[in-house]
Amino acid sequence: MLFNPQRNDYVDAGGPVRYLDDTGLKRPLTAPRQQMAAMAAFVLAAAVIGGILLHSVLDAVNGGAARAQASMEENLARDVSYDLPALAALASLDDASIRQTFADAGYSTVDLSTEEEFPSGGFELAKLPSDVSTVDAGLMYAQGIAQLSAADAARLLKGSWTLTVDRSEALSMNVRYADFSSGDVNAAVQAAVAAEGFDPATVPEDGQGVDEVGNTFMTGTVDVDGSTYTWRVSAIALSEVYDISGLPDSAVYVGIRLTA
């Protein structure tokens, strides 16, 4: 490109060399006032939106945890009865009669087994809390108790129990439930013994303590229609059975077994 001394983008420095005009580069780097106002508005809007998003995230994390804890405590405070089955009174009944006993009492139950699982007779069922529908309970059992939130687990476990009747050899009846009120395993064992009407006087010298897997237990005998049956009540921390964060540390898992 040939040099043209008449072009206005060059300046005369008073010598033989002409330089490009740098006036535009020396202009102040300040945007016009109207543009500055628009930029400030954008910054303010971004700050407001960011604040709202941050508040939503913090509320979802902190507020959500608080609401979940409150829901769990509310479910545990429900006035629902366990209505534990008196195993000694059921021992002489057949499967159909046991089921009919529960129906006559107005219990809502869910079958957890099939006839194929107990070819010699027997079954497994769950008695539901009076305020939990079979539909809701079925969904929770399908999900798996260990996978439930603390609030849902408290809703299902408070006031429910699972009964297993096995007739493959000698009759064996076993009821299991979560105890949220006794406070510790020893108190839970004593409460279960009293609820079943078992006589602590039948407990031998070595019939109570802690077994090899950590269960606190008590065992004795009871007479059923002239036959002697052995009962055993055991308890362990609920957290040892279900790893559900948020449930009370004092919750206990109780098992009551009656065998011929």
Automatic annotation (TrEMBL):
It comes from the Bacteria. Keywords: Membrane, Transmembrane, Transmembrane helix. The chain crosses the membrane at residues 36-58. This is Teichoic acid transporter.
